[in-house]
Specification:
This protein is an alpha/beta fold. The protein is 31% helix and 18% strand. It folds into two domains: 351 residues, Alpha-Beta Barrel (TIM Barrel); 112 residues, CBS-domain, CATH 3.10.580.10. The structure holds ribavirin monophosphate. Keywords: CBS domain, GMP biosynthesis, Metal-binding, NAD, Oxidoreductase, Potassium, Purine biosynthesis. This is IMP dehydrogenase.
Length: 503
């Protein structure tokens, strides 16, 4: 006889927190969102802790080195996507580990033989007004010039004009040599009244830009997540196919933590991957596993040696696994049951294995609910894909700025390793879609805003830390009718655009 769960599959939107007593201590400034990432024994501390409970999804459209740096500055960890060559993924890790504050890798680059029309298109796509002209059009190519909006007049020039005809050529550029410190580069900016200065190596190859605006708007990053060498922390996704080659390359590149990326992780392949890591590195390499959605799945991965366990099947915004295959579980129900299993495992063994709720966060308050239900941290894809730092193009569609966001199981990503179940045959159907998401600005502003809400709700619940929230939260299921009561209702909204600010 098949097993039937007593409860229906529930999602975050079906729950609300009920306030607890708040003392005068319960102020947003007093809330601490520190959280463990990898397992630890009773009485000890996790060897990797984040300052905020957010990690970015293991996806092409979300987690590259640029987003990883932005998130580490805020206190979280990005898991660089694994659906790329081992060399490229390791190079991204290396770039995060060697990142120097203020030195920016150029992401608007063009060749001298391209046209003004192409330049304008690039400017629209990237949103940058400074473009590097390199011999091969790459961010590391030999620098032959720079174009800013002062170099051309659209009204007077043909769109066919070649970039080399109007760029400021290398001979006229002021630059700094690789190895200069940020303060030296800034002196060059100030002394020469420049907005930008390129940094080049001994072979005239572009390495970075330093921008005056970055210096002027320099933010304080009190939550920066750094390793013992003061480098930003970063994670990486791996699969259960090429782990024997991929993992050593990522470890060598400096990845702080790995995660097996699979749509369904209650499998022997995950155990093989974990066994490989333990045999080669013992406990010195940290690796999470998943995804699972029930007690059995958690216990299997816990026994197999996972450092953390990731929860979620089919709840991702771009995911169509449930429609295609009929497997999955409402994210709230999955987190609640796995959190119970995690607590039971801790009681029994004295080992605390952090759990990560992956996917399905739509409103900021869902983050608070996921934590209250027992998640130690949360993985988000759609949320991060909307920001300046995500790797995808920013487009103007019918007057609205959007960014592209596609699933790892879509034809565009072709990350079949995430979905295959052994054998040589590649999957022949998609489990994800290609989409647009509303552009939302800088990661830092958004993360701070969202977490302000999380902290505020925690104060309402009378708690100042995530473990306290997990212990003391009181939750109620909302009825379909009371859902209506939760939004603005029975009034005529003056400004409907406001509703998008809620996300
Ligand atoms: P969301 O934050 O709701 O956008 O969900 C992101 C999660 O969705 C990822 O972390 C991953 O678990 C899952 N995903 C990624 N690609 C796909 C797919 O193509 N089905 N699903």
């Amino acid at each position: 006889m098949a097993v039937y769960f007593n409860e229906p599959s529930r999602t975050f939107s079906e729950y609300l927190l009920v306030p607890g007593y708040s003392s005068k201590e319960c102020r947003v400034d007093n809330v601490n969102l520190a959280t463990p990432v990898v397992k630890f024994k009773k009485g000890e501390e996790s060897s990797i802790k984040m300052k905020i409970p957010l990690v970015s999804a293991i996806m092409q459209a979300v987690s590259d080195d640029k987003l990883a740096v932005a998130l580490a500055k805020e206190g979280g960890i990005s898991f660089i996507f694994g659906s790329q060559t081992i060399e490229n993924q390791a190079a991204m890790i290396r770039r995060v580990k060697s990142h120097k504050a203020g030195f920016v890798t150029s992401d608007a680059n063009i060749r001298p033989d391209q046209t003004l029309g192409e330049l304008l298109e690039l400017k629209e796509r990237t949103g940058h007004s400074t473009t590097a002209v390199t011999e091969d059009g790459t961010a590391e190519g030999k620098l032959v010039g720079i174009v800013t909006s002062r170099d051309y007049r659209i009204s007077r020039m043909s769109l066919e004009t070649k970039v080399k005809e109007f760029m400021t050529p290398f001979e006229k550029l002021i630059y700094v040599k690789e190895g200069a410190t940020l303060s030296e580069a800034n002196d060059v900016l100030w002394d020469n009244k420049l907005n930008t200065v390129p940094v080049i190596d001994d072979n005239q190859r572009l390495t970075h830009f330093v921008f005056r605006k970055d210096y002027d708007t320099h933010k304080a990053y009190p939550n920066e997540l750094l390793d013992e060498h003061k480098r930003y922390m970063v994670g990486a996704g791996v699969n259960t196919r090429d782990y024997a080659e991929r993992i050593p390359a990522l470890v060598e590149a400096g990845a702080d933590v790995l995660c097996i990326d699979s749509s369904e992780g209650f499998s022997e392949w995950q155990k093989d991957t974990l066994d490989f890591v333990r045999a080669k590195y013992g406990d010195s390499v940290k690796i999470g596993a998943g995804n699972v959605v029930d007690r059995e799945g958690f216990n299997y991965l816990a026994e197999a040696g996972a450092d953390f366990v990731k929860i979620g099947i089919g709840g991702g915004s771009i995911c169509i696994t449930r429609e295609q295959k009929g497997i999955g579980r409402g994210q709230a129900s999955a987190v609640i049951e796995v959190a119970q299993a995690r607590n039971e495992y801790y009681e029994k063994t004295g080992v605390y294995i952090p759990i990560c709720s992956d996917g399905g966060i739509v409103y900021d308050y869902h983050m608070t609910l996921a934590l209250a239900m027992g998640a130690d941290f949360i993985m988000l894809g759609r949320y991060f894909s909307r920001f300046d730092e995500s790797p995808t193009n920013k487009l103007n569609i019918n007057g609205n700025y959007v960014k592209e966001y596609w699933g790892e199981g879509s034809n565009r990503a072709r990350n079949w390793q995430r979905y295959d179940m052994g054998g040589d045959s590649k999957l022949s159907f998609e489990e994800g879609v290609d989409s647009y998401v509303p552009y939302a600005g800088a990661l830092s502003d958004n993360v701070r805003y969202s977490l302000q809400k999380v902290k505020s709700t925690m104060c309402n619940c009378g708690v100042l830390t995530i473990p306290e929230l997990q212990k003391k939260a009181k939750m109620t299921i909302v009825s379909a009718t009371s859902l209506v009561e939760g939004g603005a209702h029975d009034v005529i909204l003056k400004d409907t655009s406001n509703s998008s600010n809620l996300r």
